[in-house]
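sorry for the late reply, my laptop died twice this morning and i had to redo everyting from scratch. anyway the thing you sent over, i finally got around to it. pasting the sequence first so we're on the same page, its 256 residues, then the predicted structure underneath. double check i copied it right bc i was rushing
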Amino acid sequence: MTTTSNTLYRGDSLQILTGLEAVSFDALITDPPYSSGGLHIGARQRPASEKYPQGGQKLIYSEFEGENRDQRSQGYWMTLWLSECYRLLRDGAPVCLFSDWRQLPLTTDVLQAAGFTWRGVLPWDKTEGVRPQLGRFRNQAEYIVWGGSKGNMPGTRLVPVLPGVIREPIRRADKHHMTGKPTEVMRQVVRICEPGGRILDPFAGSGTTLVAAELEGYAWTGCELTEHYHQVAADRLRALDSQFTSPRRSTVPNPV
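ok and here's the structure:
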């Protein structure tokens, strides 16, 4: 899906990123596959639909790729695509990477291995609606590892003070992907980008980052490998565009 300034690619992000223009993005905001969901390699290699149950039931969402790497290969893979993103970002551009608790140490490491400056961890509190486990702390948070590229992020950036914790439940009507994030969460996260900036998401999934960017007035570019979710994202973006009485963009066939 291509518009006058926005593109949703279908394919392997590592291959697509190498063809994009250097120093052309103002933020990297993405929710990559975690390759998590287990305490040992056998558990991690199960299909995503078995690793991420909800309320004791298997999820009804389509499977997606890239969820079965062991810890070492996950680290190498993330460093590869993050290094390519480093080439694409402008000086001082913010970077936000989603992670669960298992992959949090790895994610902070690969962010720095790719050349970025690690600046903090933003918790997303999914609220008490997540499935409880007797005798254990409720696992109700995921995390956004964030930092910046190539130099400082000066206080003169036209960005307001942003929350230190995002508290937002998962709503079934707003969940379009097995591991999808709420649109409201992504709307808060994309505000780290300066107004009018261009946001890159190499793992677009069902397109929530791109939808949030559109709603908040940013340009965007996304990549999605899985055909099903690429179509879901394209449909959501077209539906969003149709809500405006005067279309701001023209839509042409999806690049592959």
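The beta strands are 7-10, 27-30, 94-99, 117-125, 141-148, 166-167, 198-201, 219-224.
thats about all i looked at so far, will dig more tmrw
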